[in-house]
């Protein structure tokens, strides 16, 4: 078990691992492009490595030199039929986006994942891909993994997303690269747009008309990708420093894509002192250094319109709400119920163990603050974001917080504890 003690303050500079969402997409688009793509800053977390292994099983050549990946793509139609089942591990991004690519391949494939991923809903991607002509089946009437996919012969469609989801949007757009005609996706509200940005960096024409995004079949050309620091990983340090008086931390080279930067907006609404410096753009992605100083926080209302830009940050925002004065209400986040674990129930259960009361909602939670975190024993539920949220709670707790099954932090932030300890100034 991992034991985390209270921190007097956090000070200094740090970097966080490469963006998980961008790392996934960099491997996928490199694998179906022509030529060799150089990727810098690739996240060597368990999820992204699962994506890498899947493409290697389909004949994509990968070489690593001095922390850089060189991926030689097979073009749109050059992937090889895998001899064995593709394993997405715990990664929903791998399974859902890969399903779009596999639907365009003129061969048979099976993709599965660990026990957690096999419980997560896949109907949301299987339905539109079937409409495009893919043969997809799976457990529970084709709604859960393992998924079997017989691809090829796709037709472009116009698809109205039932929920704002970058994974569904991306799966359909990626399938559209292999389809006859044009493929359009219409969102109910904006979701993260890494796929659209990266497609353009590989030379694909992407038409954006409000909430409608359109692509057609077009060869991808190899490029050079620099993966910025993951703002979802940075969120844990941002919240910790914002909650501890006297803290002053600068996180360097962080991706501040507006479809992902909701954590910064909300912390600013709560009264956090956050400064954005050295703004620039690399490969179509905005990047900056983010400075955060400890301050008094106040409660905030987070609603459905904000959720797509900070869905992964809700567990650690719950810790910020515990420190904030007033009642924080989070709604419109039902998607939390079908992540690596039910994150609403998990946060309620684990916070209760360390002396904090929250009121769970079907689509969110209500937290009165400030409350004292007393310390105690917690469990990650095998979810990296729950584990790191409990670690942040430990930095704010009167007595130590212990975390069982903490190794899952490596899914998105290998070295998280070491990074925190290097910033600690006791």
TrEMBL record:
Residues noted as binding 3-phosphoshikimate in the record, renumbered to the chain: 20-21, 25, 165, 167, 312, 339
Taxon lineage: Bacteria, Bacillati, Bacillota, Clostridia, Peptostreptococcales
EC number from the UniProt entry: 2.5.1.19
Pfam families on file: EPSP_synthase
Protein name: 3-phosphoshikimate 1-carboxyvinyltransferase
Family: Belongs to the EPSP synthase family.
Complex formation: Monomer.
GO molecular function: 3-phosphoshikimate 1-carboxyvinyltransferase activity
Principal cellular location given in the protein's record: cytoplasm
Keywords for this protein: Amino-acid biosynthesis, Aromatic amino acid biosynthesis, Cytoplasm, Transferase
NCBIfam families: aroA
Occurrences of domain Enolpyruvate transferase (ranges): 5-419
InterPro entries given in the database record: Enolpyruvate_Tfrase_dom, Enolpyruvate_Tfrase_sf, EPSP_synthase, EPSP_synthase_CS, RNA3'P_cycl/enolpyr_Trfase_a/b
Record pathway: Metabolic intermediate biosynthesis; chorismate biosynthesis; chorismate from D-erythrose 4-phosphate and phosphoenolpyruvate: step 6/7
Residues given in the record as phosphoenolpyruvate binding sites: 20, 92, 120, 167, 343, 385
Enzyme class: transferase
Function according to Swiss-Prot or TrEMBL: Catalyzes the transfer of the enolpyruvyl moiety of phosphoenolpyruvate (PEP) to the 5-hydroxyl of shikimate-3-phosphate (S3P) to produce enolpyruvyl shikimate-3-phosphate and inorganic phosphate.
Reactions it catalyzes: 3-phosphoshikimate + phosphoenolpyruvate = 5-O-(1-carboxyvinyl)-3-phosphoshikimate + phosphate
An example Gene Ontology CC term for this record: cytoplasm
Localisation per UniProt entry: Cytoplasm
Catalytic residues of the enzyme: 312 (proton acceptor)
């Amino acid at each position: 078990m991992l034991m985390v003690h209270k921190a007097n303050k956090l000070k200094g500079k740090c970097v966080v691992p490469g963006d998980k969402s961008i790392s996934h997409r960099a491997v996928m688009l490199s694998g179906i492009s022509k030529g060799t793509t150089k990727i810098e800053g690739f996240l060597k977390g368990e999820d992204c490595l699962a994506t890498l292994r899947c493409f290697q099983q389909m004949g994509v050549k990968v070489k690593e030199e001095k922390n850089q990946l060189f991926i030689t793509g097979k073009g749109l139609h050059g992937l090889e039929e895998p001899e064995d089942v593709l394993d997405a591990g715990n990664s929903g991004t791998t399974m859902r986006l890969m399903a779009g690519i596999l639907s365009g391949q003129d061969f048979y494939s099976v993709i599965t994942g660990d026990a957690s991923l096999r419980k997560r809903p896949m109907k949301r991607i299987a339905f539109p891909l079937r409409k495009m002509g893919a043969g997809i089946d799976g457990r529970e009437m084709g709604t859960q993994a393992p998924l079997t996919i017989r691809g090829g012969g796709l037709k472009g469609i116009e698809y109205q997303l039932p929920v704002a989801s970058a994974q569904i949007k991306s799966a359909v757009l990626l399938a559209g690269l292999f389809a006859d005609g044009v493929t359009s996706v219409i969102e109910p509200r904006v979701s993260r747009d890494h796929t659209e940005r990266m497609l353009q960096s590989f030379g694909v024409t992407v038409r954006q008309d409000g909430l409608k995004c359109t692509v057609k079949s077009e060869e991808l050309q190899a490029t050079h990708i620099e993966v910025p620091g993951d703002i979802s990983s940075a969120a844990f340090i941002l919240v910790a420093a914002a909650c501890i008086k006297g803290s002053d931390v600068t996180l360097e080279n962080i991706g501040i894509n507006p479809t992902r930067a909701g954590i910064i907006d909300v912390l600013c609404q709560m009264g956090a002192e956050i400064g954005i410096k050295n703004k620039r753009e690399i490969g179509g992605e905005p990047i900056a250094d983010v400075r955060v100083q400890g301050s008094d926080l106040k409660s905030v209302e987070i609603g459905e319109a904000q959720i797509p830009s900070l869905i992964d940050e809700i567990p650690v925002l719950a810790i910020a709400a515990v420190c904030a004065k007033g009642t924080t209400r989070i709604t419109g986040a039902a998607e939390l119920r079908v992540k690596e674990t039910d994150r609403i129930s998990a946060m309620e259960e684990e916070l209760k163990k360390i002396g904090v009361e929250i009121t769970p909602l079907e689509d969110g939670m209500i937290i009165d603050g400030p409350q004292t975190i007393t310390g105690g024993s917690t469990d990650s539920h095998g979810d990296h974001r729950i584990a790191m949220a409990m670690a942040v709670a430990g930095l704010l707790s009167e007595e130590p917080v212990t975390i069982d099954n903490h190794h899952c932090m490596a899914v998105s932030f290998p070295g998280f504890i070491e990074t925190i300890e290097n910033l600690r100034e006791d």
